[in-house]
Amino acid sequence: MNEILYDISVILSVYNRADELALTLDSLCNQTIGRDRFEVIVCDDGSKEDILGVTKRYEDKFNLRYCYQPDRGFCAATVRNLGIRVSHAKLCMLLDNGILLASKALECHVKAHKHKKCAVTGYVYGFDDMDIYSDEVREVIDNNHIDRAIEILEEQKYYDCREVVYQELGDDLNNYPASWVLYWAGNMSADRNFLFEVGLCDESFDTWGGEDNDLALALYMNGAEFILDRGCASAHYPHTKIHNLIRDPELGKQELLDKQKYLYSKYPLDTLRKWYDIHELELNQWLVKNGVNGDLRKSSQKLGSLLNKT
Prior knowledge:
This protein is of the alpha/beta class.
């Protein structure tokens, strides 16, 4: 086991988009947490662009390392595992390229972990998977320091797309029947040892999406407490999406269903089976409206009886 040298390791997964990497690293230069308390590991999934060159520009800003794996297609789970394995901190934060952190974000992630099995999700302003407001969000970020940009995005209601769930059900994810469905890799953290105990990320995922849901389910089945901390704030810098939900919606939907069925084969939860038919941003609301509440690990038989009738 690696020696613990820091409070938190930022596992920053990257594939090309070198300009956005610089923006993300810029935001890490301004963290309120002391530079001796965190490390950043840039995990390169076989980029064609000069990711190493960008990384080297920040070597004197904070504790920084670069890891590389050859391009074998979409291998986000594998490259994240690479970063976790070489990390030297109590906590690991999974951060996506193009996510810019508020200055207090790392400090808030560390404070949010009250015990080993906390699974913390941050807030990502301007994140909308279909890029509806990309031009407006980009303009705000381009013309403001990240903390001010986040304030403006809040004022102009360019929320994290999960806000529609939070507004209806509240910020206490312990009250959510399927909290795991909202634990996404763009800005989240967990205890390093806990990640190893659940087997890290499933490396069989080789197209966009699903690997973070798998990790969330593994954590959930092993007793994780999911926590939303709005202080772990960030902004999503818009970029062109190339996954099939945009390029080929029918293929994208089939890929998602195949992944959901695979997840169900590993974690046979009735709530997961319901996800086949209900969008992830509507699943928890539907469950609550149909009388499914609280921690389902304590009431699985009752839940199964209820859902089988609907």
